[in-house]
Every structure is written in C-alpha cells, then in structure tokens.
Amino acid sequence: MFEPEKIQVIWLPGQACTGCTISLLNASHPNLLDLLTGFIPQAAGVTLDYHATIMTPWGEEAMKAVDAAQRGELGPFVLVLEGAIPDESLAKASGGYWCVIGEDEEGNPITFNERIDKLAKHAAAIVCAGTCASFGGIPSGKPNPTGAMGAMDYFGKDWKSALGIPIINVPGCPSHGEHLAEVLAYAVLAVRGFLPLPDLDSQNRPVFLFEHTAHENCPRAGLFADGKNSHEFGEPYCMGLLGCKGPISHCDVPKRGFIEGVGGCPTVGSPCIGCTEPAFPDAPLSPFLAKAPAGFFVAEKIHSIPGSLEAVWGRIKETLMGRDI
User: Fold this and answer.
1) What DSSP element (H or E) covers 155?
2) How far is the C-alpha of 1 from the C-alpha of 157, rounded, in Å?
3) What is the CATH number of domain 7-209?
4) pLDDT, tens digit, for every residue of 245-265?
5) Which residues belong to CATH 3.40.50.700 in the chain?
6) What residue spans in the chain does CATH classification 4.10.480.10 cover?
7) Cβ(246)–Cβ(266) under 8 Å?
8) How far apart are alpha carbons 135 and 245 in whole angstroms?
9) Class of 214-292 per CATH?
10) 287 contacts: CB under 8 Å, gap ≥ 6
11) What is the pTM of this model?
C-alpha cells in the first residue's frame, strides 16, 4: 500500500472569484481544520502549502512551494484548481496575457497556464473546485472573450495523473464547501490506498455527490408529483413553472443544505439555476428564469405511471389476500 506520511496541497486560482474558497472555509463536516490537523487519522498529514487567499507567506517565500512542485521536488501533492483556464494565445496575439501567478527570476510574468502545465506532470491528483475550473463556468459564458475552459477541456478528458487518477470535478457556483472537503479527504485516502478511486459520472463528478438531480433531492418534488406548482414566487410548491432547472441539474444541496444543513436554492424559495452543469451559464440553463425543456415534464409523468400502478396494484393484492395490516 502506497502510504506517504505527508501529502501537500497546492491550491491555484485561475479565472475565479474565490467563492469556492469561501465555501470551503464554511465547511463543517469535515471542515478545513479537520483536514489540516489530522482529525481523520487516515487522512492526517495534509498540508496546505499554497493558497493565495489564506496562506501567511507572501512574495518569493509564498511561491517556493509552487516552484518546488513544478520541479517535482514536492510530493506527493494534490493540485486543486479554482477558476477557469484562459486561452493565453488569444492574449499573446495582442501582446498581453489573461492570468498571471508570480514572476520568473528576470521579473517576467508567469501565466496560470504555464504553472498548471508544469504542475500537472507531477501531481498525484487534480481536483477542480467549482464549475469554472471544472467546465469553464461564468468566464466561459458567451461570448467567452478569453477562450476560458475547464480542466477537462484543457488537459483532455482522458488525462490521468502519475498515479492513474483522472481529473475530479466538484462543480457548483460556488461549489458546496463540504463537497470540496469530502472530495479532498477522499483524494488523500485514495492516494494512500485506503479507498478505491471514487466512481465518477460522465462529467468526472463523484457519483456519491452528483448521482441524483436537484429535483430528485428537492423537498418540493413530492408536490410536483401531486400536481402542485408555484405560479408566483413565495408559494411553497414546485418551482418548475417558475424556471427551476432542478430537473436537468445534478446536485444534492436541496437535501443537505448549504451550510450546517441550512439553505439550498429551491429549499429557500429560489429556482435552481443549474450551476453544477457543464453548459452553465448558457442555454438550456439560461435565461435563469426560463423554464426547463418541456420534454422533462412529459417524461417525468410518463416514467411515474408504471411505478404508481405497481404500488396501487400491490396494495390492492395485499388487501385481497388479507394482509392489510
């Protein structure tokens, strides 16, 4: 079993708003301190060697861990990307650049792309925090002037680390803090051989978090099945007719809440805007208050018929057989 005593984390921001970092700081089960202080014994020994927002070093001292990781001298390390990856060739054509992290010895800027190209070669795993890093997110929305994209588009969907771990996407705008904490803990345990790699869906999202849609996880879903729909904001019924994208978005936030079990868009009366999906923020997830494609509503009702009939017939049979207890 590969069980390194220490695992470093390099958290690199690209085209981002830092919202996913704020979410991680609000995580509670586990929280960031749990990960960094060894509360989970098998995941102990994790160090956050670079995070531009919350680390104390600055300047050249701050970049030492990143430079060492690029040279393959820091390891094993998990590379966390927060923010979209721009197309620097577009900026270079006019003599500029989009996103810079630090300078070389001559004072020349080093782009985010140059950094991740070198870091990816040595990373034990890449975890994408948020929809921007996963799929491009807001920066990639039309007309996408910077050519922004997610890590899977940048490195290729079949990319794998030296340990054979594919890119793991934890989307959301911002991502759920506990999604990030759980996946980071999972990645550390997988690197150490305590757990198998997490099952990923077709978009490289962990199945244990993103298997079901927001609609399936929503406490209002039963009202939709009962034919009760909200027609004005503030009504307590299904918001499918008010533009909720829960039926076409994979997310468990309506069930688990956002912080300490509280919050979650449909739970508090706001339509889901589909922020965990690859197409976000473009159609069919926008305009945000436009209704989800009609096909869903038809399919939902058709798919529910066999199950409803089975339940009704099963209940009738039990009654006829004297098993009505």
Assistant:
1) helix 151-155
2) 27
3) 3.40.50.700
4) 999 999 999 999 999 889 889
5) 7-209
6) 214-292
7) yes
8) 18
9) few secondary structures
10) 243
11) 0.90
